[in-house]
Amino acid sequence: MKETQFLPRNYSSNIESGAVAWSSPSNIALVKYWGKKERQIPQNQSISFTLDACKTKTKLQFEKKGQSMDGFSFDVIFEGKKNEDFKPKIETFFKRIEAYLPFLRTYHFTIETSNTFPHSSGIASSASGMSALALCLVDVERQLIASDASLSEKERNIDEVDFVKKASFLARLGSGSACRSIEGDIVVWGKHEEIEGSSDLYGVRYPDEVHENFKDYHDTILLVDKGEKQVSSTVGHELMHGHPFAKERFGQAEENITKLKAILKSGDLKAFIALMESEALTLHAMMMTSMPYFILMKPNTLEIINKIWAFREQTGLHIGFTLDAGANVHVLYPKSEAKEIYEFISTVLVAYCQNGHYICDRIGFGACKL
Ligand code: DP6
Q1: Tens-level pLDDT at each residue, the chain (370 residues)
Q2: Ligand 1: residues within 6 Å at CB?
Q3: Which CATH number do you get for residue 273?
Q4: Is the peptide bond before 299 cis (omega within 30 degrees of 0)?
């Protein structure tokens, strides 16, 4: 599929005003996206578990504006208060997607948004935030197309598969990882020979067999550091250009997807944990070996990792971790061992969390219309 396929067909903006609302989850990558080309095309394939509890809810109101105003016009209301901080990122997003959504300059938008996870928990909210907004926007487009009487009945009906694909395509242009938050419990982004239907342009629901062991997999997110990150993901991706290990890393990610495919089928939890932890540490190794170099882990990140390893050694339970671009630790474990592992988290690991805070989550199924 080419980018041009997402260019809109002709339709008119006949609706004066309206509103749509979507809830969209965050996701946690098992094989990490780190490094991108022009237009948010990833340097390597990635795969993630969709989360269930960590979500952004967004309501988008749209109202036709006067002829005179040329630029994008929108207000952002975050958790009940007018917010200026998100505006530049949304402005950039609108610029990137305007060719695909011709009505963007026709309306004034009020974007009312809130997260189910605590504000400034250090959890990446760009995946849930951008995917929720992308879904709202394709939903507006769907309404405009449906109400255009000059189109045939067939043309007025947007196919569900195309709707989801376009939402993921647009979400990617807001934030790469956001394209993995639209639909499915396990999502792949990036063209991979062994994953049918996979694409660099959008995320696809993992199409192959998944063992029972991974159903309802748990993820407890330990909030080690809730402050602003010193280095944003966008800057981190940039630093993969000319990185001494870039080529090997991109090749390794591709191989890891192949390995993970076999693991997801067999249900081999030991191999799953080894691959996931190695991916997390490789991501941070890339940060430590870029120029300039940086470290996002904190002392408590390492304390937690060591405690997890010791507990695993002692009990033989299948507890493992992954990290995103920050100090927080995602502790992943199968449902069948949840009781003992949760007991360990809530009595031992909690001591290393900022103000004792952590979030209990598990695999979810993607976004939904509100
Ligand atoms: C470490 O999707 O936040 O979480 O495309 O610049 O918005 P942008 O980056 P972003 O990067 C996420 C990086 C990661 C790994 C992952 O989710 O795959």
Answers
A1: 789 999 988 898 889 999 999 999 999 999 999 999 999 999 999 999 999 999 999 999 999 987 656 789 999 999 999 999 999 999 999 999 999 999 999 999 999 999 998 766 667 679 999 999 999 999 999 999 999 999 999 999 999 999 999 999 999 999 999 999 999 999 999 999 999 999 999 999 999 999 999 999 999 999 998 777 778 888 999 999 999 999 999 999 999 999 999 999 999 999 999 999 999 999 999 999 999 999 999 999 999 999 999 999 999 999 999 999 999 999 999 999 999 999 999 999 999 999 999 999 999 999 999 9
A2: 29, 32-34, 40, 46, 124, 126, 175-177, 233-234, 237, 283, 324-325
A3: 3.30.70.890
A4: no
For the record, the structure tokens of 307 come out as 């405690």
- To test the pocket of ligand 1, the residue of 26, 27, 33, 181 to mutate (highest count of ligand atoms within 8 Å of its CB) is 33
- State how far the Cα of 90 lies from the Cα of 254, in Å rounded to an integer: 31
d(CA 198, CA 261): 13
Beta strand segments in 32-149, E: 36-37, 41-42, 46-64, 73-78, 81-82, 107-115
Q: Distance, CA 251 to ligand 1 centroid (Å)?
A: 18
CA-to-CA dists, residue 30 to 66, 90, 357, angstroms:
47, 27, 23
- For 154-174, give the DSSP string: HHHS--HHHHHHHHHHHHHHH
Residues in the chain: 370
In the reported structure, the alpha carbon of residue 175 is separated from the centroid of ligand 1 by a whole-number distance in angstroms of: 7
Same domain, 152 and 59: yes
Cα(17) to ligand 1 centroid in Å equals 34
Segments forming the whole domain that contains residue 34: 3-188
Residues 143, 286: one domain?
no
